[in-house]
Amino acid sequence: MRVAQLVKQGDRLYLEENRKALEIFKQSRDAYVSAQDEYTEGRSPPSALLDRTREVLMRCHLCRKRTLTPDRR
Prior knowledge:
The chain is an all-alpha fold. The chain is 79% helix and 0% strand. The protein has one domain (2-68). α1 runs antiparallel to α2 (47-68). The relative contact order is 0.14.
């Protein structure tokens, strides 16, 4: 009984924190994409900005995947 309660609590906390992380990564993504949009007239965004955008997109995907299908080992 106690183990089941602790596991349930752990799952709840995991999903809650994952949702918070997803929101923060979405905000970062929006800021990075807006920064990229500032580069116009043939100017390319710096590779560091492109790398950050790619990284945050991957993290958003992982958080979204974890929220939809939590790991039930």
